[in-house]
């Protein structure tokens, strides 16, 4: 005698699991940025901070992202809803891990950028700028800009191919060195 096993599709199985499960939390937690680096919390590939910045721009409603690369210099400008200077300061002191919010995505991007051991990491918003050393509360005239400058003889090799592979079908216009990428 052979037992009958009911076969169901993946969609039905997921729906059944969702109906019988309980929600506990969103799974986000926070830690200090410097402590995270000291404890070795790292992105698998530090250069993925570029993709996280693109993700942040998308989450913040940007329609255009402009990236400039020149050897060891990386600069990204986006026209989305920029965080306030207070949010940036809070983000860096109380680092929220998790990509469900734009500030969480931006925090992960900054963690990846810091892994590259940059000589300079600066975020500029309209009301001022944030660097790893200080906050400057003088208007910048920028909506949102991130600048990362690597050490001598380091460069951002592979960023163009990474963007072409992963962001080709983005709804945003992505420019690389003043050329439309997608």
Question: Which descriptors would you attach to this protein?
Answer:
6 helices; globular; 182 residues; two-stranded antiparallel sheet; eight-stranded mixed sheet; alpha+beta
Kindly name the structural category. Answer: alpha+beta
What oligomeric state do the depicted chains represent? single chain
Q: How many alpha or pi helices?
A: 6
Strand adjacency order, main sheet: 7-6-5-8-3-2-9-10
Would you write up a description of this structure?
There is one protein chain. With 182 residues, the chain is α+β, with helices and mostly antiparallel strands. The termini are far apart. The model has no long low-confidence stretch (mean pLDDT 79). Helices cover 33% and strands 24% of the residues. An eight-stranded mixed beta sheet has the order 7-6-5-8-3-2-9-10, covered by helices on one side. It has a two-stranded antiparallel ribbon with strand order 1-4. It has helices at 10-20, 33-38, 49-59, 85-93, 102-115, 159-167, and strands at 29-31, 64-70, 73-78, 95-97, 120-125, 128-131, 135-136, 144-149, 173-176, 179-180. It has six helices and ten strands. α3 packs antiparallel against α5 (102-115).
